[in-house]
Write a structure and sequence with these properties.
heterodimer, A: alpha/beta, globular, B: alpha+beta, three-stranded antiparallel β-sheet, 14 helices, about 15% strand
C-alpha cells in the first residue's frame, strides 16, 4: 500500500513517443495496433506525438523515444533521419526495412544503370540506433516489451536462439529433412516460428542470429537447389547486407 | 497568397491559386519491386509483392497468386476461391475502416488523432475496434497472419484452420455487422464540401454480382476489355519530379476505388443494403469525389454482410484439407482484382524453368493520382475565396478522400 502513491507518481511522468516512416510498406505501424488492448495500455505510459499517416509533421520539443520504420532512400531522407536523431533520446529501428534494409535492398544487386540510385541502406548505417525490433512484419508483443522495459529503465534484449528452437517446441516437421528450403537454422528466433507453423518455410526476415553457420546450411541446401536459388533466398530481406549481425 | 504547399508525411500537394495550377506527388522513394522480382522463382512473387503495401498486403498477395496461377495453368478449387473471396472481404473491411476512423473521422470530429477518440467518443471508438478486430481475425484465421499472409500460395492453401476458429469468427461477425451499420449511418450525415466533377470510372464488372475477385474491366465511357488486354488500354508514364508513375485510360484521367465501384456496380449490392441506402437518402450515382468516403462506408457494410454469407456456406460444406496444386507449365499470366482503393493489375512472364522474366504491377494509386491532380486544378478557383485555414483543411480532405496509398503509388 505504501508503494501505491509512488507508482501513480511515476505513471504521471509520461514519456513522449513519435513514429516516423520512410521507404517501406508502412505495415509495421499497422501491426502495432494488432492487439489494441495492449496498445491501449501503452497509452497510459506514453504520449504519442506523431503517429497518423498523412499527418503533417511538426517537431515540437524533443521526443523520449522515436520509432523508425522503413529505410532511408534519398539524401533528403538521410537528412531527415539525422534531424530525428537530434530531437530524440532513444531510437528504435522497427521492422526488417529499418533493421536490414528490407525487401527493397535487393536492388543493391541490380546494375546501377537500371535504377539510377545509390545502394539501399539500413537506418543504423546512417545514425546510431539504440534498439532493434526485427521481423517483417514485427511481432507487436516484442515492441510493447521493449517500450515497457524502456519506460522502467531496464535494458531490452532480443532472444539469440535460432528459429529452430521454437519450431521444435511447436512440434513442426523439419522442412530441411524433407529436402525443402528453410532458413530457420541461421535466423534469429522470437517469432514463435509463425511461418513454419502455417506450412511455409522460414525466409529469415529477422536477420541472422549471432554466429550463423551459413556455410553448413548452403551445403545442405545445395543437395536440391542451385547456387543461384540459394543466393536469391538468402537476400530476400537484405540479410546479406549484415552478415555479422550484432544484437543491438 | 500565391502558393500553398501542403506537406503530409509522404505526399505533397501544391496548389497555385493565381493561375489555377496544382501538382501532386508522392515523395516516398521508389522501391523497384518490378525489377527485384526478375530472376526469382514464380512462388516468390506473392511473398515479395505483398510487401508493396502494408495496408493492402492481402489483395496484393491474392492478385499475384491469381496471375501466377494463370501463368502456370493451375485451376484452383471452388473452396480455395471461396476462401480467397472471404479474405478479400476481410481486406476491404480492414482498409476501409482504418481509412474512415484513422484518417477521415478525426478531422470531422475535430480532434488531433485516432487515440483521442477513445476519450472523446468512446462509442465511435468501439465501432472502429470491433470492425478492425473482425477483419484482422478473418485474415489471421485463413492466412495465418494479419499482414503479409503466409498460408495463401499459388495452388491453394498451405494450412487450414480448425473448425472451431471458423465458429468463433462467425460468433463475432454479427457484432461487426452492427458496427458497420452504425458507421454507415454516421458517415452518411457528415457535411461534405460540395464539388461536382464528371470523371470516368473503371472497375471490374460481372453480369450477376458485385465484382471484386474476377470479371472484365469496364469503363463508364464505353471501353470494355479483359484483364489480359490491359496494355492496349491502360498507359503508364513517368512524370518529371515525381516518384510515382501516372496511369491513364488511353490518355483519359480516370477514377478508381469505392466510389467508382458504387457507381458502376451499385445494382448488385443486394436488396437489404439498397433499402438501407435508400432510407438514408443516398443517390444512385455520386459525382462528388468527397463521397468516396461514403462509398467506403457502404462497402464496409456490404463486405461484412458478404463475409457472413461466405462463412455460413463454408461451415455448411466443411473446410477440407486440400493439397496445393503443382504448376503444369510456365507461360505468362495477367490478373486483375479490386483492391480497397481500386483496380489492381499484376502481370508476370515466366521462362521454361519457372523464373520470372518480366513483371508489371499497376496499382490503384497510380491511376488515381492524375484524377486527383485534375480535381485540385479545377477547384483551385473555388478554394480562392476560402479563409486560409479552411482551404488547407479542404485540400487535405480531398487528398484523404481519394484514399491514395503512398507505398502503393511508389512500388
Amino acid at each position: 500500500m505504501e508503494n501505491e502513491p509512488q507508482i501513480n507518481k511515476m505513471k504521471s511522468a509520461r514519456k513522449t513517443l513519435a513514429m516516423f516512416s520512410l521507404a517501406s510498406c508502412q505495415g509495421c505501424r499497422l501491426e502495432m495496433l494488432n492487439s489494441y488492448k495492449d496498445f491501449g495500455h501503452l497509452l497510459e505510459y506514453f504520449d504519442i506525438k506523431i503517429f497518423r499517416s498523412k499527418q503533417r509533421i511538426n517537431f515540437e520539443g524533443a521526443f523520449d523515444i522515436a520509432i523508425i520504420e522503413g529505410n532511408p532512400d534519398t539524401a533528403e531522407q538521410a537528412e531527415f533521419l539525422k534531424k530525428i536523431r537530434r530531437y530524440s533520446n532513444t531510437i528504435i529501428a522497427m521492422g526488417a526495412c529499418a533493421h536490414l534494409g528490407g525487401i527493397q535492398s535487393e536492388r543493391n544487386f541490380l546494375p546501377q544503370k537500371l535504377t539510377g540510385k545509390e545502394k539501399a541502406k539500413s537506418v543504423s548505417d546512417i545514425i546510431r540506433v539504440e534498439y532493434v525490433i526485427p521481423g517483417c512484419p514485427i511481432d507487436p508483443k516484442e515492441l510493447y516489451h521493449c517500450l515497457m522495459d524502456l519506460y522502467w529503465g531496464k535494458i531490452f534484449c532480443l532472444p539469440d536462439l535460432s528459429v529452430c528452437f521454437e519450431c521444435r517446441q511447436n512440434g513442426n516437421k523439419c522442412l530441411l529433412r524433407d529436402n525443402k528450403l528453410c532458413l530457420g537454422p541461421v535466423t534469429r528466433g522470437g517469432c514463435d516460428s509463425i511461418c513454419v507453423n502455417n506450412g511455409e518455410a522460414c525466409f529469415g526476415c529477422r536477420g541472422f542470429k549471432a554466429e550463423p553457420n551459413i556455410k553448413k546450411l548452403k551445403e545442405q541446401l545445395s543437395a536440391f537447389m542451385t547456387e543461384e536459388e540459394i543466393e536469391n533466398s538468402l537476400t530476400i530481406f537484405g540479410q546479406k547486407n549484415k552478415p555479422e549481425s550484432k544484437l543491438q | 497568397m500565391k502558393e500553398k504547399i501542403l506537406k503530409t508525411e509522404n505526399m505533397v500537394s501544391c496548389t497555385d491559386l493565381k493561375n489555377s495550377q496544382a501538382q501532386i506527388g508522392a515523395f516516398e522513394s521508389e522501391r523497384f519491386f518490378e525489377k527485384i522480382l526478375v530472376g526469382r522463382k514464380f512462388w516468390e512473387a506473392p511473398i515479395i509483392t505483398s510487401r508493396i503495401c502494408g495496408n493492402c498486403s492481402a489483395i496484393h498477395n491474392i492478385t499475384s497468386i491469381k496471375a501466377i496461377e494463370s501463368a502456370c495453368s493451375i485451376n484452383p478449387s471452388l473452396q480455395t476461391q471461396k476462401l480467397r473471396k472471404l479474405m478479400i472481404c476481410g481486406q476491404m473491411i480492414y482498409s476501409h475502416s482504418l481509412h474512415l476512423y484513422w484518417e477521415v473521422l478525426p478531422d470531422f470530429v475535430g480532434i488531433g488523432s485516432f487515440f483521442e477518440l477513445q476519450k472523446s467518443h468512446p462509442d465511435l471508438f468501439q465501432n472502429a475496434i470491433s470492425l478492425i478486430r473482425y477483419a484482422e481475425k478473418i485474415l489471421e484465421t485463413f492466412g495465418g497472419r494479419t499482414m503479409h499472409l503466409i498460408a495463401s500460395v499459388p495452388g491453394g492453401f498451405k494450412s487450414y484452420p480448425k473448425k472451431q476458429s471458423a465458429k468463433i469468427l462467425l460468433a463475432e461477425s454479427q457484432d461487426a455487422l452492427g458496427a458497420a451499420e452504425k458507421t454507415l449511418r454516421l458517415i452518411a450525415f457528415l457535411n461534405y464540401p460540395f464539388l461536382e466533377t464528371k470523371r470516368a470510372f473503371i472497375t471490374l464488372h460481372k453480369s450477376d454480382e458485385y465484382a471484386f475477385y474476377e470479371g472484365d474491366i469496364w469503363a463508364n465511357t464505353g471501353e470494355h476489355f479483359e484483364a489480359k488486354d490491359y496494355s492496349n488500354f491502360i498507359y503508364e508514364e513517368l512524370m518529371p519530379q515525381n516518384r510515382a508513375k501516372f496511369g491513364t485510360l488511353m490518355g483519359k484521367k480516370v477514377m478508381v476505388g469505392a466510389l467508382a465501384r458504387y457507381n458502376q456496380n451499385g445494382a448488385f449490392l443486394g436488396e437489404k443494403i439498397k433499402k438501407l441506402i435508400n432510407n438514408l437518402g443516398v443517390p444512385k450515382t455520386l459525382n462528388n469525389p468527397f463521397y468516396n468516403i461514403l462509398a467506403e462506408a457502404i462497402e464496409c457494410y456490404f463486405f461484412a454482410a458478404l463475409s457472413i454469407d461466405l462463412l455460413h456456406s463454408l461451415m455448411a460444406e466443411g473446410i477440407k484439407n486440400e493439397p496445393v496444386i503443382p504448376p503444369a507449365e510456365f507461360t505468362s499470366g495477367i490478373a486483375a482484382c479490386e483492391a480497397p482503393q481500386g483496380i489492381l493489375l499484376h502481370h508476370y512472364e515466366l521462362n521454361k524453368e519457372g523464373f520470372i522474366t518480366k513483371c508489371n504491377v499497376i496499382t490503384p494509386a497510380v491511376l488515381n493520382l492524375p484524377a486527383l491532380e485534375l480535381d485540385l486544378k479545377q477547384t483551385a478557383s473555388k478554394f480562392k475565396e476560402m479563409p486560409d485555414h479552411e482551404r488547407c483543411q479542404t485540400i487535405d480532405l480531398l487528398v484523404k478522400a481519394y484514399d491514395i496509398c503512398s507505398p502503393c503509388a511508389t512500388h
